Amino acid sequence: MIRDGKAAGWLQLPAEALLPWAMLSGVAFHSVVPGTAVGRGGALLASEELSSCTDHGASVALMTVPRDLILSLERVLEHAKVDKDFREVLNGLGEFGRALPLELLPTFWTLNELQLLVGTTLAPAVSSKLRSLQREYEMLCQSASQTRWYGVVRDHLDFDDWLQVDAMYRSRALDFPGIGHCMVPCIDLANHSPGESTIAIYEKDDDGNAVLILRDDKTVTEGEEVTITYGDAKGACEMLFSYGFLEPDRLSAETLFLSLTIPDNDYYKSAKSQVAECAPGFKLVDARDGGIEWSGEFIWLLCVGEDDGLRFELAKTVDGGEEMHAFFRDQELTGGAVGLYDMLGKSELWDVYRLRAIAVLQQRVFDQLQVLYSMQDGVEAVSHGEGTGIRDGQYEQAMQLRRLEFELLEQAYEDFERQKLELAQSEVVGRYLAQVNGSSTHAPDEEGVVAASASDEQEAAEEDFS
């Protein structure tokens, strides 16, 4: 990809144009060449028939990329030692400069195209990313403003350039064994193919070079695409966010993240947020066995309050400041929400806390389903294609993501309903409700569990659901 000064934009070169540069730079291609795959753009193709079974048990090397071409943190720091201008910029950026920041990622979608994502978990992720990129760009300009480099490039550097840098790295970075997150030219030509359909793997050899190796028991015909995996466990949202595409044959959203908010009328809202030490939300994962797994310790902060024995105290620090300390049943809480989860798990009322959590999670899933469903007819009716401002590819990707996330949310709702009914029959829940209601014969039900919740807001949320 090169910058076109006249058009003030970016031009995409064909994959084959990389070959002369690669060969001059010492990249060795072994029976593979840059090319184009139908419907997938640039690709890595086999130039002859390959088989991992014909090399007497040895690994079949497909490509070797010299270590000096690998854009890693180590390489960045090495270059800073010999390039004064680069060192000035890097030092000005501080810790931000220690991390590496044309794929058509959602950060390049038009406003009309982004509207197609409303109700999906990708919508807030893109919005947050764009705000973050704007802050990063402003920090870059401010931090490097006194360097000679910035004086040369300032008239040619704009926010779109930073968007391009982010997209290039996010869509091309690999988690390389022995190297970490990095960009490796030529190997990143290989497209994604998950599971058993992955043709090749990448490793670091004894000299620090990057090598692409044919997987065991794989056979490739001449002209066939050689693929790697970008991560088999990545969910639909992450694939579209980081790589700009969804596999046409994808059957599940795999995983998605839903945010959680401590209600405004929770007296301990500020204190809980200060001690949480984890992301404010939870992750849903398709377990592939008809069930749903979930994780996220933040939920436990929504399930207990003062009546349960949760309290907070401010303490003075040695430098005269203040810090928040949390206690649960007179035992100091360490580790934030994770520590609270550990304490609740040892409590005789564990089933009660689990039931509260499941009710809140199910309500959050229901709310997300409502937003998706309420927008669906309008999204489906949107005109797209040439002259509409909404490209066919972006429309199709958005519709596929909406369908996959709706199916996973619907499955999660049903699974939470099953768990909720099972927990409602727990002897622990029964005894707890009997004690709360002053009756030893009270049978557990949803409304009873709602009445026994830890805070006024929690009660309201669960009552609305029931």
Automatic annotation (TrEMBL):
Residues 439-466 are annotated as: Disordered. GO terms for cellular component: nucleus. GO terms for molecular function: protein-lysine N-methyltransferase activity. InterPro entries: SET_dom_sf, SETD3_SETD6_MTase. Residues 456-466 have a biased composition (Acidic residues). It comes from the Eukaryota. This is SET domain-containing protein.
